Protein: FadR/GntR family transcriptional regulator
Amino acid sequence: MSKRPSTANTLVLPPFGPVRTRRVFEDICDQIRGQVLAGILRPGDKLPAERELAEQFGVSRTAVREALRSLEIAGVVKLQKGVKGGAFIQGGSPGVLTQSIRDMVALGRISLESLTEARLFICDIVVRLACQRGKEADFRALDDNIQLTEELERMQENLRRTEAVVDFYRLLANAAHNEVLSILMLSTAEIVRQVLARLAPAPSAGLFESRRRLVQYLRARDEEKAVAEITAHLKRIHRYILRQEKLRNI
Structure:
């Protein structure tokens, strides 16, 4: 991995190369992403000032500004204003993926059928890994979430209850101990939550019993029963979504 030369106060980066392509902002983005991939730039690092970047790339400050905005939208950098502001490398945000998929669902480029089908496959893998890798602390966190969700429902705290329902999938993915699957699991769960908020709240009958059975099967390392339990629940939710969507379009 490349070394990271630095001074006492400022990180000194290898100079970027001149840009000669027609869409220069894309080349700027590629070079910055390249240094992130190489480990030269890491989360929290501050990029050189806009004027200095323009000189290194051999482009206008407008092109640099456009590139930084593009990287901000992609979640690679965060732009901060003020005396101590600038462009900082981000640690990565699952929200960017969620927003991208949600936009494609809204635009009709991804169908609800495709979304729900993909979610079933992701949950299948996550549950199997949770059976194999989950620790008691993971299962206790799921138990606590179920109890909290029940309490919020009794209190009719609908917004917090919905957040807790989605958080169950985050905790389940944590038990699988795979960062990529955690991002995919949480993204699909959040998009389904947003779809339900647009259509109508899903019925909660049998939800808590199903989740308790799921955790029981996870503790027993019974992959087949655990997968069957969550698959049956998700299929009920997905049928409900598709039915509500059809009624909405009549």
